[in-house]
Amino acid sequence: xxxxxxxxxxxxxxxxxxxxxxxxxxxxxxxxxxxxxxxxxxxxxxxxxxxxxxxxxxxxxxxxxxxxxxxxxxxxxxxxxxxxxxxxxxxxxxxxxxxxxxxxxxxxxxxxxxxxxxxxxxxxxxxxxxxxxxxxxxxxxxxxxxxxxxxxxxxxxxxxxxxxxxxxxxxxxxxxxxxxxxxxxxxxxxxx
Length: 192
Ligand code: GRF
What we know:
There is one protein chain. The chain is an alpha/beta fold. It has a single domain, classed as Rossmann fold. It has 7 helices and 7 strands, in the order βαβαβααβαβαββα. A 7-stranded mixed sheet has the order 3-2-1-4-5-6-7, covered by helices on one side. Helix 1 runs parallel beside helix 7 and helix 6 crosses helix 7. The radius of gyration is 16 Å and the shape is globular. The site of 5-O-phosphono-beta-D-ribofuranosylamine has 14 residues, from helix 1, strand 5 and helix 7.
């Protein structure tokens, strides 16, 4: 049986992308077929290359062009797209083609702290300033509106006194590394 093929879209460091590549490296049914970035110098690209995973770089303009994304994913025979720290808008036509087949991870308990401008430390700073007692991560399908696709799963962590943006970032990253690959795996296998 052919494996289900994932494309990871990532713009940055790629700790989630690396974790996903490693999780599926010897998986019997799912494989990471390529890593796409809109930044030619994104560290995630080197990390993919050392794992012998194909990479692809698009300009910001190309990354927002649905036909280019459709052609690329067709060429790589992609079944699912994983957004892991990917900071470009996904064109609506592409989202329609991959309906419920694009997963995103967001570093808050959506619908809280989502939407335009809410990424990375902006999220953690907003959480800190609101004196929240807990935060967490959301794994959701991508829909044409930012951070509003159907939620697949959420995981929480407590916030204690004297948290900082840095301490929240670390807690969130641990949650992401612990759960994102397994949620992808479970969701894809359930559909088969
Ligand atoms: C993560 O916090 C994820 O929730 C968000 O972008 C960040 C990516 O981090 N979408 P990394 O590049 O995977 O380290």
